[in-house]
Amino acid sequence: MNPSRPQPVRIGFSDLLGALREARTPLLHSPFLGMSFAAVFSLIGAALLGTALRLGLAPMTWALAGGFLLVGPVILSGFFAISAAQRAGRRPGWKDIVRGMAGVPRGLLGLSLVCILLFLIWMTDAGILYSFMIGDTAASWISVLPYSALLLRFQLGAFTMGAFFAFIVFCISAYAVPLLIEGRASLVTGISASVRAVFMSFPVQLSWAVLLAVVMLISAMVTPLLIVTLPFMAFASEALYRRVFPPSRLSPGNQDVPES
Prior knowledge:
This protein is mainly alpha-helical. The chain has helices at about 15-20, 25-30, 30-55, 60-65, 70, 75-85, 95-100, 105-135, 150-175, 175-180, 185-200, 200-220, 225-245, and strands spanning about 5, 250.
């Protein structure tokens, strides 16, 4: 079988606003399920940030929170499973989430490993920068705020490195993840299509990336916010994906077979 190659559509800011409005529908239809799923990651985030504070690594908490932008694509399959059940006219449940996450294609597993690797590289670089600039002196929780020139320089350095890795992850995964989940592309063609989509509508896509980063970074620092913002932004991502890659935008001749 020779599946078609997905072709991105140029979008405008009206499409971005429309996707944000559409995200309310799946969230309001299954609020408890989506928020309960998000609560799992809220608790994980709270545990990681709490551990950093107890170890006297308060300035590193922003880097940890920002790392969520790199590993976030890994969990999208659960939210896609919720909306897929809704589109099929069923009431979604935890079985749909488990089935959706357990049944991801190999290509998505490979992409997830890349995201995790970039996260580890970022944490290593931030840790090295921390050791050089701040040293092994335990920092109190107030050091989360860059109240001194030294802390500000550290946060700016970590932010610069993190923004670079986050942009790479956004380009390769923003649309490759849903394409892989729906079996519309292989790993290589999915990443290629995702990068094309980002640069085809670069001002809109960059605005979406910045909005996503700001919302998720703040939510990861104030972890209870993730219970609402995580499902909302996940459903908004799916809504935007369907505008960028509508089912009708296919071109024949692709010899790549989606990985199962």
